[in-house]
Amino acid sequence: MTYCLGISVKEGLVLAADSRTNAGVDYISSYQKLFDFSLPGERVLVACTSGNLSVTQAVVHELGQDIKMGASESLHSISTMYAVARYIGQKIRNIQKEDRTWLDQDGIKFQCNFLVGGQLPGEPPEVYLIYSQGNCIQATPETPFLQIGETKYGKPILDRTITYDSSLDAIAKCALLSIDSTMRSNISVGPPINMVLYEADSYEIRHRVQLQSSDPYLAKIRKYWESTLREATQNMPEPEWNRVSIDAEPDFSLE
Amino acid sequence: MTYCLGISVKEGLVLAADSRTNAGVDYISSYQKLFDFSLPGERVLVACTSGNLSVTQAVVHELGQDIKMGASESLHSISTMYAVARYIGQKIRNIQKEDRTWLDQDGIKFQCNFLVGGQLPGEPPEVYLIYSQGNCIQATPETPFLQIGETKYGKPILDRTITYDSSLDAIAKCALLSIDSTMRSNISVGPPINMVLYEADSYEIRHRVQLQSSDPYLAKIRKYWESTLREATQNMPEPEWNRVSIDAEPDFSLE
Questions:
Q1: Does the CB of A246 have a partner CB in chain B at under 8 Å?
Q2: Which of A205, B12, B127, B213 is the most exposed place for a label (fewest CB within 10 A)?
């Protein structure tokens, strides 16, 4: 599996990804899942990937090739974020045309998801999720984050803390906690964690970080978070016990 | 779906369950998932259920019938927790024998999980998870909690806070948060929440609670928890940005 996260708030964007790829539990390895295609000063474009590694690598390769070859349509030439999302979707569909039948006949799922976030001239910063089928959805102020991969473990902290008005700084820390909680609870998600923070209208990524499992900061926030949660549960008000009694007898007796 | 939780620590046990049953998202209803089969003063036995409702209801009905009929083997006569777990497993297998082929032929999964926790004379308190296949596993000091149903959302908080030495009071609050976080993030888990707290060697459940969605306590802890998490992320140390740069070029270029 993998876990990637794209968050779009008033102040800007945060994109983050783990680096684990696994085929079952007995083949686990590390691959970069976050790629920066920005042109500093002109446009910011960051993509995260999950799903079948051969598919996502092929798509990322194609994205890189179009830029290298100066193709008329590339991440360095397309003028809207929506068009960027559709363009990536088209790349996914092209790989499907090539590989799908070969994967299907051996029961291998053609499955991949992309997150792409950034800002193009004259547009606000945006984040899109692109599906295996090539269609896409966009993060909105009501739902400012999009997740791909192993999304469940890390969702509650996002649901509980993130709003469109949250500060970028707080969002970045939430994203790290969301990924770290997932790593803690599921071996299919693992370090290093790559994260970028983008301030709206700066057209340049000024904050990026890569955290290895051995990183002292990661150890520090883990310790901090666990002690904080412990303390918070200790101080939480107690339930009023014994306001009801729960029946031994099922109330749906079949007799 | 459903989400149930059984926790076994030094001081005793906590069992908790939501009450949601859904067939897809367009048929959602409430059923009790936590059943108390205790004989106060003699034995404590609490079961939680997840999976196919027709299967779990049939098993719970059988468990009740054996008690009513004074069967030689019942939850009021069996003398070890392990034997109780195997006995429930046998009930599941009996229903499989009856229903399995009929469900299979229409592509309906025969799937159910049980948690059973309690204490029988001369034994420590124990919690078991019983699978659809009738086999079982037990919670241990290294892994003091067992989950069934929609388990992922609520796992990080347990992983981060619960140890075998945690106080029952803290465990109960963690269990509520774990279930409430799941309800917040996934509509297939819903109120009322039923929870029992059992103090080791008391042979009597003295603490039980049922929380409806409208319960002011549930509203209070939600507010408390969200503000606590927000504050905690605010106060969390910042990452050291820009210690690495993330390549635009995939390092696995296919050329």
A1: yes
A2: B213
